Backbone:
């Protein structure tokens, strides 16, 4: 019987079967950031242990570091400086590659890794960060871990891993015009729920997935963790190879040819079977927005806020009512036209060059509504530089957006900057949890296009109808 | 880090039965103020536990402030407990506060792993059973027998992979366990480096 892509990656990395479905897996790449990486490195050092594969370990500053122009080690987040300086010290002591503030390689960990070909097809990659699943889009087995597991990976270049079950989500057909990978990710969440892939690794497959460029695939895999999946993965193909060739850490010369030959076998065999198989019709996907406080609380923008549906088995009534109260919405209310206070384009979901280009195409020649606070934070210093070379920064600034340095910024609230209490934000990020973007902030997840169109109109707006708005 | 071994625990169980409680609700990011695994218990469920953000005045409406649950060491939760950010601070805060077992219909996988590595037993049980347990106290979690039981004699088995059970029961450090295989690991890496030299930078 054939093997799934996941099984091929698992089998090629198992050093020992530890019994009970747990394997000792070889780890090819470890990524760290200052939020959770510093504590792992310090704890490792305190235990008198070294980083085994230091050249395969990379560190960046993205979570705590400010994104205001002219930033330094000082942060708006109280005590934030300590995270930056402790991580820098520990990374330097361990001899790790560090993308520090001011380094052209700096940026959000899941943006810089594909950008520099740190993640490669067929590799295992871990990071103490739940959105590590993003990088599965490159045909890698990439997943988020805790800090103690990160210490284990650093010390031994292995992890003891409980083997997940396999799920395939096949997306047939093509996404409609103006419908984005983010909309597809939210559509999948609305359909399968926030625990819909618990215990599974999700392989995204099908015509619509194959048709996505790398950045779109990264957006799709980014939200696998919101399904509670072990991770997401997409088989590498010519699109992946074209993207990787020539990037900083990609193999070169004869190694490139050997790698390519190996990578071409890394796909699920035709006769492979999955524990769960789902099919999604791409043509049924429309621009989406969230109405509640979980990414599964998503609907098409032209749909009203849903009433509680016991049959869905998804939420309890209490959870549904709590989400509505938090968001100050009522069932049946229209989402299109809802006034917003702020607009945010950023994060490892949607702050790559193509995201900024598509948002800029909508913003060009327009101004954001006067009462809307609008911010754009490129996902990496390299994305920022490329965007500036194309003049995208001017479009954002002329439209009334703040143009920031790269980092996670207000994707999450760490005690520093926030959008403020009860402020309604339309955001290209991945989590709309209570207080995620600031105490009592109300977040509506959407594509960068929807964020841009809504910022101009001052109300939630379907980007396809913006001329009519 | 060594963790406290766990075999059998009888304790009050505190019900916080909501679905999708995320790690930011367990320990808000603003409460993680140092590069340390300690000093987090005060921030546990801070957003719900205190009357004001950043404050320390207990909100009497929140279950943790009910004197009846002052000594709770078992937590009853809803589906997909521990979703969201991978921050291990959620498990550290729960452990430091004194929780040694969490009973929920399902857990987020990263959070579940973090619990096992910090001496907290993640017990998966049907939502109806958890509702039933919430009405009775104290609760016994027996990791050797693999059961949860109530004083009236009702008991339910739960599953936990052998590796996790062993680590929890013995309070084992996973790194030390793995270090015993360091020769195998070195040999595997050496062979792999010939197959995939591009991985070994
Ligand atoms: S951008 Fe947001 S989701 Fe992504 S790594 Fe940073 S904080 Fe996490």
Residues:
């Amino acid at each position: 019987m054939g093997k799934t892509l996941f099984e091929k990656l698992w089998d090629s990395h198992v050093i020992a079967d530890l019994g009970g479905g747990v394997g000792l897996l070889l780890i090819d790449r470890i990524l760290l950031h200052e939020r959770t990486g510093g504590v792992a490195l310090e704890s490792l050092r305190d235990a008198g242990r070294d980083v085994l594969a230091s050249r395969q370990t990379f560190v960046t500053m993205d979570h705590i570091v400010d994104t205001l122009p002219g930033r330094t080690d000082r942060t708006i987040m109280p005590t934030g400086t300590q995270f930056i300086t402790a991580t820098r010290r520990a990374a330097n002591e361990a001899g790790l590659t560090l993308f520090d503030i001011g380094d052209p390689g700096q940026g959000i960990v899941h943006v810089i890794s594909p950008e520099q070909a740190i993640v490669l097809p067929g590799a295992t990659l871990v990071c103490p960060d739940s959105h590590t699943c993003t990088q599965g889009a490159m045909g890698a087995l990439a997943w988020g871990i805790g800090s103690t597991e990160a210490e284990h990976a650093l010390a031994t270049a292995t992890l003891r891993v409980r083997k997940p079950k396999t799920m395939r989500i096949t997306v047939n057909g093509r996404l409609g015009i103006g419908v984005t990978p983010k909309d597809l990710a939210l559509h999948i969440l609305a359909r399968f729920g926030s625990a819909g892939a618990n215990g599974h690794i999700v392989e995204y497959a099908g015509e619509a997935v194959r048709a996505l460029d790398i950045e779109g695939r990264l957006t799709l895999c980014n939200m696998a963790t919101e399904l509670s999946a072990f991770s997401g993965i997409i088989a590498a193909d010519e699109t992946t190879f074209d993207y990787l060739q020539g990037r900083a850490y990609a193999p070169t010369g004869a190694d490139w040819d050997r790698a390519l030959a190996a990578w071409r076998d890394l796909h699920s065999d035709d006769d492979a079977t999955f524990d769960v198989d789902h099919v999604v019709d791409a043509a049924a996907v429309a621009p989406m927005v969230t109405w509640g406080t979980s990414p599964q609380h998503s609907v098409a923008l032209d749909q009203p806020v849903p009433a509680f549906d016991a049959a869905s088995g998804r939420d309890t009534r209490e959870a549904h009512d709590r989400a509505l109260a938090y968001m100050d919405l009522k069932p049946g209310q229209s989402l299109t036209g809802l006034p917003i206070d702020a607009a945010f384009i950023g994060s490892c979901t949607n702050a790559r060059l193509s995201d900024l280009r598509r948002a800029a195409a909508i913003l060009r020649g327009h101004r954001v509504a006067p009462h809307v606070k609008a911010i754009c934070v490129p996902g990496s210093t390299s994305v920022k530089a490329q965007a500036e070379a194309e003049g995208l920064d001017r479009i954002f600034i002329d439209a009334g957006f703040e143009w920031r340095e790269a980092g996670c910024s207000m994707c999450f609230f760490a005690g520093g900057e926030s959008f403020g209490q009860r402020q309604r934000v339309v955001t290209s990020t991945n989590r709309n949890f209570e207080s995620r973007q600031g105490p009592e902030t109300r977040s509506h997840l959407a594509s960068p296009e929807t964020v841009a169109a809504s910022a101009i109109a001052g109300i939630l707006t379907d980007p396809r109808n913006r001329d009519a708005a | 880090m060594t963790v406290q071994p766990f075999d059998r625990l009888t304790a009050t169980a505190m019900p916080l039965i909501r679905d999708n409680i995320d790690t930011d609700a367990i320990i808000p990011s603003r409460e993680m103020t140092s590069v340390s695994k300690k000093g987090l218990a005060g921030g546990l469920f801070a957003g719900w536990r205190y009357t004001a953000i950043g404050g320390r005045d207990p909100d009497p409406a929140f279950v943790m402030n009910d004197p009846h649950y002052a000594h709770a060491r078992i937590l009853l939760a809803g589906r997909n407990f521990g979703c969201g950010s991978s921050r291990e601070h959620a498990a550290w805060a729960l452990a430091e506060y004194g929780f040694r077992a969490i009973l929920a219909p399902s857990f987020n996988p990263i959070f579940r792993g973090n619990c096992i590595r910090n001496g907290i037993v993640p017990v998966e049980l049907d939502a109806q059973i958890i509702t039933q347990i919430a009405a009775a106290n104290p609760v016994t979690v027996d990791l050797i027998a693999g059961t949860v039981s109530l004083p009236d004699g009702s008991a339910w088995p739960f599953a936990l992979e052998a590796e996790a059970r062993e680590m929890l029961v013995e309070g084992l450090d996973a790194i030390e366990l793995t270090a015993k295989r360091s020769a195998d690991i070195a040999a595997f890496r050496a062979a792999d480096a010939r197959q995939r030299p591009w991985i070994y930078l």
